[in-house]
Design goal:
five-stranded mixed β-sheet, 5 helices, 29% helix, 2-C-methyl-D-erythritol 2,4-cyclodiphosphate synthase activity
Length: 160
Amino acid sequence: MFIGFGYDRHPLVEGRKLVLAGVEIDSPVGSLGHSDGDVLSHAIIDALLGAAGLGDIGTWFPETEEYKDANSLELLKKTMDMIEERGFKVINVDSTVVLSGVRLSTYRDRILENLKSVLKTPHVNVKFKSGNTLGFEGEGRGISAYAVCLVEEKECTKST
């Protein structure tokens, strides 16, 4: 079994959508990123890649024209394909999104539904924090997400 950790953060700006795990959030500001700025999907991607020893999101999905405005839930699906091809399966994912001024709890079920489907496990948790007026998240200038995951190898390939 292997543990992975992921983290992402983006500034919030007018004129962009706010997307978490493929769910569009009703918000006057959105996440500024090269792709759709989905910090939750990005943090989970990094956690999965870390657990599988595959580097980070920038290694696989660089800031090139190919990934400009990309749907990050689709990038998460590609990441799942990569780790499954290498013999891993997801046991669980726990994550936290930090954002002030936008109530996210009403979106939890849809976010979890998307993540459970893509990650192919029922063991997914998403928590929401306000930042308590601290940092750029608490001041409403940005959004961040943290994720940890546990993966296991489907088949043991040890050599003696």
